[in-house]
Design brief:
Keywords: Aminopeptidase, Hydrolase, Metal-binding, Metalloprotease, Protease, Zinc. The longest helix has 24 residues. The strands form 8 sheets. Strands 6-5-9-3-2-12-15-14 form an 8-stranded mixed beta sheet, with no helix packed on it. Strands 17-18-19-21-20 form a 5-stranded mixed beta sheet, with helices on one face. It is about 40% helix and about 20% strand. It has about 900 residues and is an alpha+beta fold. The protein binds (3S)-3,7-diaminoheptanoic acid (B3K) and zinc ion (ZN). The site of zinc ion has 4 residues, from helix 3.
């Protein structure tokens, strides 16, 4: 819980540590009431610190200190002092061994940070500052130490005892306990420490590295989950091979372990050689897991594995540099997933997340650059900005340098900084040094928050046979940053002529062309306003802009409907094709809003419908692309477009439009549905995933018609599917319809799957996201369901998180009951799990976007939370910043 005055920490105050810890020896005695931790720290003054005689200041929180000794001499109480999270020993030698004994209570640790218990097993989560809940330490990433860890525990209850690195000793003790000793040869910061003790079974495999070393791979799970590890294991091996082939990175130990735990605050954690995973990100089998679930497992397994180099071998100097490891690693895992599946689909999924969640964060009270300047609670900065926008920044470097120079840059980065804790600046310097590309102005992406807007117009000069793109950039003010310097924006373009893409030649420049056929180019937008003239253009082209979403910006070009239809039908860039469909959909929604407001029927444009009809009927197109193009822009995306956001009006207009589309295209939808049905055995490959996603998109449209034949389709699919993707899609369609069968479907689903917590979470989520009136009451009822447990973050996310974050029309009920519900849950969770509480709060922080009545009700909830005694620093930071006045425009 927070101090009286929660303090802000500034990047500009960074100082090197006054002391270093060369080796860390830890001994754990795990018990049922409490556990004992004994540490032997080999400490010496940091020669780089220049702080002669400085006191030793260690971090520690919620610890019971039993004894403290230096070089074997026990310290008296007057030799140390404690205040807040700090233990201060005023007088210490140049170099010494500190022995410290603490008692901790993992059983009572509900924050899931530090050492805690989950389903009877002990496990740890130390990033960012959880190690200080285990013992007193210099808990900062620039203090790197070689760890030896001894674990003693009851042999019956905890047959498996794991930590980082290599197993160096095991011993059976006479009193029913046993002991293992682990040693990790690679120096690491405390945030990468991990310990696991429990009754676990494992699936084993091995991987031969590029230099012929065999690595033992193990995934530890509860016995009942042994049949759900194959996909994670295959993903791990694919990731290991991919990192060798694409980045030249080889794994560096003989053993790599993954452990699955039920209670986990996020997806997974990259502890050196002992990754700890949320069960939701490792377990998968077709009967219980959706396609999205399979893809998430693949992506997260790869992400954590890739951290072994981008994060562990080269780590962060301080937590302001978090994007150094997270942005880079997300970029790496998204490229990996693209290579394993469909690159365009992956890109569209990533862009969708960015344009909804990240753009919203960038436009809200918590907006921060990918390298923040300050924070109160670092846990609040594991954000879509640091992760996903951070990955976009690395992607832009990749685009500006090209793949070969980028690879040279990453090689140089790893070579220069192996074993070090470094900064984002070090990464950029390596990229510059290896490529010769000047990234001075590009650095603004690291220091400035907010989503830049690019306004582009085109001028065709028939006489000169030239086409000019006029580009101007701006970036809205964000808290603490009222004006922004121009960004260096890579703008990838092509010009479409009647017969295809036109060759590009910039006026006054010798060939500066990226693609082999000269028809695609990256423009370096660096000024506030800038023009680019292409010569030799003998027809009025349609510009294809921001291809592949080459920069995380909002692009504005005044396309006609005909131009958008052309891009949607035939652009060779998959992202631009999809984006054109979204712009057309947006125009339809705007008209539908006006129609509904005027009390008229919603009638989609005939050309738009014709394009959708063609998409549905063209069996040669990638089904996943078709599915994504047929889906109208989401309500979350629309909330980024409209000011103010009238949630209910947008929802009703969008639903009316969906119904009109379903009515007009029902024959084609049915035909498409039937075409996509298949009885091939399930595989989580791109082709099958595409087919299922198109089929289920068609089903969702057909169910809007609410007729008997659609209900029969959904019912049959629900009852007969052998995979969870189809079964859940059918359940979702039924739950959102008036079909009387839905109650029975929900009941039988529960009956069948009650023994599978991850499946029941999907059951919670489907109900929490139901668009029909009454969802809040349903959710409130489910909070008392025996399968719900507010201490389990997955369940909280499935029920409370999904309702508040993804069920706009019910969360924003006009009576404010949705807001009040969230306020109540945040207040409860603030006491047990502050990280989850502050995550959950996000929908309320966006209050400024909505209509005045909603604003008032949302604000009142934030005020109510702020008035709570004992607010955690996590919740305090988010609530207080959300209520602060700031000038955004
Ligand atoms: N590095 C961890 C995230 C830790 C979050 C701590 N609050 C997972 C990841 O990004 O790989
Ligand atoms: Zn990560």
């Amino acid at each position: 819980m927070r101090d009286a005055q929660p303090s802000t920490i500034y990047l500009s105050d960074y100082q090197v540590p006054a002391y270093l810890i060369d080796t860390t020896e830890l001994a754990f005695e795990l018990g049922e009431d409490s556990s004992l931790v004994t540490s032997l720290l080999h400490i010496r003054r940091n020669p780089a610190a220049n702080q002669l005689g400085a006191a030793l200041v260690l971090h520690g929180t919620e610890l019971e200190l039993l004894s403290l000794a230096i070089d074997g001499r026990v310290l008296t109480a007057s030799e140390w002092s404690q205040s807040g999270e700090q233990l201060v020993i005023a007088d210490v030698p140049e170099a010494f061994v500190l022995r410290c004994e603490t008692r901790i209570r993992p059983q009572e640790n509900t924050s899931l940070e530090g050492l805690y218990k989950s389903s009877g097993m002990f496990c740890t989560q130390c990033e960012a500052e959880g190690f200080r809940k285990i013992t007193y330490y210099l808990d900062r990433p620039d203090v790197m130490s070689v760890f030896t860890v001894e674990i003693t525990a009851d042999a019956q209850r905890y047959p498996v005892l794991l930590s980082n690195g290599n197993l160096v000793a095991t011993e059976t003790l006479t009193d029913g306990r046993h002991k293992t000793v682990w040693q990790d040869p690679f120096p690491k910061p405390a945030y990468l420490f991990a310990l696991v003790a429990g009754k676990l079974s494992c699936v084993s495999d091995s991987f031969r590295t590029m230099n012929g070393r065999d690595v033992d791979l193990k995934i530890y799970v509860e016995d009942k989950d042994l049949d759900k590890c194959d996909h994670a294991m295959a993903s791990l091996k694919n990731a290991m091979r991919w990192d060798e082939e694409v980045y030249g990175r080889e794994y560096d130990l003989d053993i790599f372990n993954i452990v699955a735990v039920d209670d986990f605050n996020m997806g997974a954690m990259e502890n050196k050689s002992l990754n700890i995973f949320n069960t939701s990100c490792v377990l998968a089998k077709p009967e219980t897991t959706t396609d999205a679930g399979f893809q998430r497992v693949e992506g997260v397994v790869a992400h954590e594995y890739f951290h072994n180099w981008s994060g562990n071998r080269v780590t962060c100097r301080d937590w302001f540099q978090l994007s150094l490891k997270e942005g880079f690693t997300v970029f790496r895992d998204s490229e990996f997933s693209a290579d394993m599946g469909s690159p365009t689909v992956k890109r569209v999924e990533d862009v969708t997340l960015l344009r909804t969640a990240q753009f919203a964060e960038d436009a809200g009270p918590m907006a921060h650059p990918i390298r923040p300047d300050s924070f109160i609670e670092i846990s609040n900065f594991y954000t879509v900005t640091v992760y996903e926008k951070g990955a976009e920044v690395v992607r832009m470097i990749h685009t500006l340098l090209g793949p070969d120079a980028f690879r040279k840059g990453s090689d140089l980065y790893f070579e220069r900084h192996d074993g070090q804790a470094v900064t984002c600046e070090d990464f950029v310097l390596a990229m510059e040094a290896a490529s010769g590309v000047d990234l001075s102005q590009f650095r603004n992406w690291y220091s400035q928050a907010g989503t830049p807007k690019l306004s582009v117009s085109g001028d065709y000069d028939a006489e000169q046979q030239s086409y000019t793109l006029n580009v101007s950039q701006s970036c809205p003010a964000t808290p603490g940053q009222s004006s922004k310097a121009p960004f260096h924006i890579p703008l990838k373009v092509a010009l479409l002529g009647e017969a295809g893409q036109l060759p590009l030649q910039l006026l006054g420049e010798s060939a500066n062309v990226e693609s082999a056929d000269n028809t695609e180019m990256v423009l370096n937008v660096t000024e506030q306003t800038q023009s680019f003239t292409f010569t030799g253009i003998n027809e009025l082209p349609v510009p294809s802009l921001l291809r592949g979403f080459s920069a995380p910006v909002k692009l504005d070009f005044d396309y006609s409907r005909e131009q958008l239809l052309r891009l949607m039908r035939g652009d060779s860039d998959g992202f631009c094709r999809w984006d054109a469909s979204q712009q057309l959909g947006l125009a339809e929604i705007k008209r539908a809003l006006a129609d509904v407001a005027a009390g008229q029927n919603v009638a989609p444009d005939a050309a738009y419908l014709a394009a959708c009809r063609d998409l549905l009927s063209d069996g040669s197109l990638d089904g996943a692309m078709v599915a994504m193009m047929l889906q109208l822009p989401s309500e979350a995306y629309l909330a980024e477009i409209f000011h103010p956001v009238d949630v209910l009006a947008i929802h009703h207009a969008r639903e009316a439009l969906r119904l009109a589309i379903a009515t007009a295209l029902q024959l084609e939808l049915l035909d498409c549905y039937n075409r996509c049905c298949s009885d091939a055995p399930y595989a989580a490959d791109a082709e099958q995933i595409a087919q299922r996603s198109l089929k289920n998109t068609a089903l969702a449209y057909l169910m809007l018609l609410d007729n008997e034949s659609a209900r029969e389709l959904a019912t049959a699919q629900f009852e007969n599917s052998e995979n969870m993707t189809d079964r859940l899609a059918a359940l979702n369609a039924l739950v959102n319809s008036a079909a009387p069968y839905k109650a029975k479907a929900l009941q039988s689903f529960y009956q069948n799957w009650q023994h599978e917590p991850l499946v029941i979470n999907q059951w919670f989520q489907v109900q929490a996201m139901c668009r029909l009136p009454g969802s809040l009451e349903t959710v409130q009822g489910l909070m008392n369901h025996p399968a719900f447990d507010i201490r389990n973050p997955n369940k909280v996310r499935a029920l409370i998180g999904a309702f508040c974050g993804q069920n706009g029309v019910n969360f924003h009920r006009e009576d404010g009951a949705g807001y009040r519900f969230l306020g109540d849950q945040v207040i409860i969770l603030n006491r047990s799990n502050p990280q989850i509480a502050s995550r959950l709060l996000v929908p309320l922080t966006k209050w400024r976007k909505y209509l005045p009545a909603a604003q008032q009700l949302m604000c009142a909830e934030l005020q109510r939370i702020l008035a709570e005694p004992d607010l955690s620093s996590d919740v305090y930071e988010v609530v207080s910043k959300s209520l602060q006045d700031y000038d955004m425009e």
